[in-house]
Amino acid sequence: MSSPEWNNPVVKWVDDRLPVFSLMHHSTAGYPTPRNLSYWWNFGSLALTVLIVMVVTGIFLVMSYTPHVDMAFDSVERIMRDVNYGWLIRYIHMNGASMFFIVVYIHIFRGLYYGSYKGPREILWILGVVILLLMMGTAFMGYVLPWGQMSLWGATVITNLFSAFPIVGDFIVTLLWGGFSVDNPTLNRFFSLHYLLPFVLFAVVGLHLWALHAVKSNNPLGVEMKQPEDSIPFHPYFTIKDLFGMGLFFMFFLFFVFWAPNFFGEPDNYIPANPMVTPPHIVPEWYFLPFYAILRAITFDIFIIPAKLGGVLAMFASIILLMVLPWLDRSKVKSCKFRPVYKWFFWILFLDCIFLGYLGKKPAEGSYIIMAQLATLYYFAHFLVILPLMSKIEKVVDLPESISAAVLKKSEDA
């Protein structure tokens, strides 16, 4: 791809030696984008924006945080009370985690609805799932750092899950703990990894964007760009669209920061960690609740697999399953707009995930267990049974000839 001619002599001198301006040009003004992208495509850039906010605020929080079990809780209180604008930085960081998961979950469900996992975007999708896994690991370790009651006992419960694995399970748990219980070595390990993983996340996001620029964006029609009229430059058309969406998003984000900063938090985490007192109901953060419900739904042995190990495997499988999604869906049509039957199953899956999140917060007893088992059964049946079956038997609607033809027809109809 040829480099643009720069009129500014300083820009030209720098670009001849380090073509950073040419790279920016090819990634914006020179990047062809489907002309029919909707606001659902804003959430990728929003996720990157929130990641930057999280890293910047995290760097400032580290300046005043003490990773020691005797001082961690008090150091967080000091950040809130004594550090200039510490309360603001912490509330942005704390609520930013929830915002990050909100935009990424919307981004994933948009990809599921419009078939963004299908070829030639398989690696792009797999990298997205890797990003989700890294986010989960980073968020879990960050939740432990305030060293409140829920931090301590959440870490104890989650790390103990690895003991379910035969042979290596106890070794993994001891490695995570740095001893024989969740204590100061555990906090130091989690602090170190919580600081490291966001930079690993940045690297994988870079690969994700690289793959995106190689295969180009999907679009609501699921039709590939075939002619010049199908695309427009990313800048200024979609940069303006992204900035508008970003403004609305930050209004939503800052509402929680200033008016409901503890909305997503657990009250028990404002009590200093006490290994002698177990909270009556241990729950993870809201963004882990669907997977927590799947974990607790397996209350029975599966052939030779014990119930505890079966729950752990089911929880991890619910995420790993997304990686093989491009090969489970064999339909030639990408977008659910042209799949009249399957799109109803998609919305059932969406409601099922919300229901699993609700069940994850409830105690694992009585009818809640049965409901969690049924919801878990549907989750796996959707990907392993319904999706492959619909790929074979569903009668799809005819696709438009091209993106530009569909856009022009829509304009004429309007």
TrEMBL record:
Primary subcellular site in the record, as a coarse category: membrane
Subcellular location: Membrane
Residues bound to heme b b562: 93, 194
Keyword terms: Electron transport, Heme, Iron, Membrane, Metal-binding, Respiratory chain, Transmembrane, Transmembrane helix, Transport
One matching Pfam family: Cytochrome_B
TM segment ranges: 39-65, 85-112, 124-145, 157-178, 190-211, 243-265, 311-329, 341-360, 366-387
Needed cofactors: heme; heme b
Cofactor binding description: Binds 2 heme groups non-covalently.
Annotated residues for binding of heme b b566: 107, 208
Gene3D superfamilies given in the database record: Cytochrome Bc1 Complex, Chain C
GO molecular function: metal ion binding; oxidoreductase activity; quinol-cytochrome-c reductase activity
InterPro entries for the chain: Cyt_b/b6_C, Cyt_b/b6_C_sf, Cyt_b/b6_N, Cytb/b6-like_sf, Cytochrome_b, Cytochrome_b_C_euk/bac, Cytochrome_b_N_euk/bac, Di-haem_cyt_TM
Family annotation (SUPFAM superfamilies): a domain/subunit of cytochrome bc1 complex (Ubiquinol-cytochrome c reductase), Transmembrane di-heme cytochromes
Function, in words: Component of the ubiquinol-cytochrome c reductase complex (complex III or cytochrome b-c1 complex), which is a respiratory chain that generates an electrochemical potential coupled to ATP synthesis.
UniProt protein name: Cytochrome b
